[in-house]
Design a protein that fits this description.
Blueprint lengths: L11 E4 L2 E6 L3 E5 L3 H6 L7 E5 L4 E2 L3 E3 L7 E2 L2 E7 L5 E8 L2 E2 H9 L14 E8 L7 E6 L2 E7 L7 H8 L10 E3 L8 E2 L4 E6 L5 E6 L3
Parallel strand pairs: 3-14, 5-11, 6-17
Antiparallel strand pairs: 1-2, 3-4, 7-10, 7-15, 8-9, 8-14, 9-11, 12-13, 12-16, 16-17
Length: 214
């Protein structure tokens, strides 16, 4: 049987010190996994899950400011990369970009807000590092050299193993899945020209620049 269309190739992430790449399948995200971030958002500190399409993942060093927003927020996160059996085989640094004004309008109407989270290029990623993810260590994000987010991975309400167990209640986790594990406090707006640097101790860095809207 022949397909009627040609599917686009999946995004692929580089693996630090390895010639192989990681083909991205699904992207799962958890919200409110750091109590201080939940507090700053005026929400209860309880895990909520949402998804992004694979097209959200990007490794571009220059990202255009997206359409349909005037209030784009950054959220630095530890990202888990899953292999056979849904087990963690690597981890990296990611940023969840959010159209906060659009999200707020949708929340006010009790409407789904995935379009504020799942737009193309909304999940910048650095290279992955093979092995178990760090259980603790500094996680931070700076904009134009000024630190905005700073915390420790040990502050996660659901650490990686518990997070995957909870997510696994609803989905059969598969090779190629990425899991964004939540963000510490300090999320705020980005504007064109901003240089973003996201860091997690022991993992390859992530740097990108936000350019003018296309």
């Amino acid at each position: 049987m022949t397909d009627i269309i040609s599917r686009p190739a999946p995004p692929r992430l580089a693996i630090d010190g390895d010639s192989r790449t990681f083909p991205v399948g699904r992207v799962f995200c958890i919200g409110r996994n750091y109590a201080d971030h939940a507090k700053e958002m005026g929400a209860a500190a309880e895990a909520i899950f949402f998804t992004k399409p694979a097209s959200a993942v990007t490794t571009d060093a220059a990202l255009p400011y997206p359409t349909e927003t005037e209030d784009l927020h950054h959220e630095v996160e530890l990202v888990l990369a899953l292999g056979d059996g849904g087990r963690i085989i690597a981890s990296g640094v990611g940023v969840d970009l959010t159209k906060r004004d659009l999200q707020a309008r949708l929340k006010a109407k009790s409407a789904p807000w995935e379009i504020a989270k799942g737009f193309d290029g909304s999940a910048p990623m650095g290279s992955l590092r093979l092995g178990e993810p760090p259980a603790s260590g500094a996680i931070s994000l700076s904009v134009n050299g000024v630190t905005r987010q700073s915390g420790d991975l040990a502050q996660m309400i659901l650490p990686p193993a518990a997070l995957l167990a909870e997510l696994g209640r609803f989905f059969a986790l598969q090779p190629g899945d990425l899991v964004f594990t939540g963000t510490p406090a300090g999320v705020s707006a980005l504007v064109p020209g901003d240089q973003v640097s996201a860091r997690i101790a022991g993992l390859p860095p992530l740097d990108f620049t936000l350019t003018e809207r296309r």
